[in-house]
Amino acid sequence: MKQIENMKQYAGILRLGYLSKNLQPMLHQASIDTPGYADFLENMLIKELEQRQLNDYRRRTKLARLPRAHELDEYDYKASSSIGIRQMTQLRELLWVDQLYNLVLMGPSGTGKTYLAGGLVNDAIKKGYRAYFTTMADLIGVLNRKEIISSAMSTYKRYTKAHLIAIDDIMMFPVQKSEAVALFNLINHLHEQCSIIITTNKSPSQWAETLDDEVLATAILDRLLYRCEVIRFEGNGYRMDNRKTFLEKE
């Protein structure tokens, strides 16, 4: 027992978390299966690696702040004619992220833009990319507070090192001039270094009205649309067509 406790301690010092917690049951199983030394060591290392990969995935998923619905395996093609199976397959391969293309999802509220954006970020995380999901409101909050709150600066730094960022509901509401400039500076920094997904219910011509600055709106759009696929969503909102109630009808 002393030897096992020492081994657990050594594993902890070496930051082998899975081995530290599971050494005793692994030794017990080895006494039953009697593997060779090399096989036993390989199995321990594989288990440790798998646990680290799982922990890393969980950490990146938490940081990504995905919307509640984001599993594209459950995408309802009947509810939306904007995306076909072939297009979805191509999007989920994420080759466009490696090629630094952007994606603009444009259309009325409730047509599936957020679901698709969140789903692609989720797929990217599974494949090991640094990917994040944020709303325009939350992003503006980070930009406003990054110089005075350390957590906001940490979030901002993560964004600047991302492979993929989804910005949901961009230009949904008017922003102040300083906020618009900060948004431009971020997008300009990310330009041709990171892929960006934009969801919006405003046409490009309406962006200038939201920002109250045509020159700034043009500069932002110029960088987003340079290498970009635009997908237009149409039809009634999914939530309105599938509205749920709780009162029983007479």
Q: Please, what is the average pLDDT? A: 85
Q: Can you tell me the CATH class of the largest domain?
A: Alpha Beta
Strand order in the largest sheet: 2-3-4-1-5
Q: Give Rg in angstroms.
A: 23 Å
CATH fold title of the largest domain: Rossmann fold
Distance between the termini: 70 Å
| Main sheet specs | 5 strands, parallel
Low-confidence stretches: none
Order of helices and strands: HHHHHEHEHHEHEHHEH
Strand content: 5-15%
Total DSSP E strands: 5
Total count of helical runs of at least 4 residues: 12
Count of separate structural domains = 2
Just name the CATH architecture of the largest domain.
3-Layer(aba) Sandwich
Secondary-structure class: alpha/beta
Q: CATH homologous superfamily of the largest domain, by name?
A: P-loop containing nucleotide triphosphate hydrolases
Chain oligomer state: single chain
What's the overall geometry? elongated
- Helix amount: 55-70%
Organism: bioreactor metagenome
Pfam family, one: IstB_IS21
Keywords: ATP-binding, Nucleotide-binding
Family: Belongs to the IS21/IS1162 putative ATP-binding protein family.
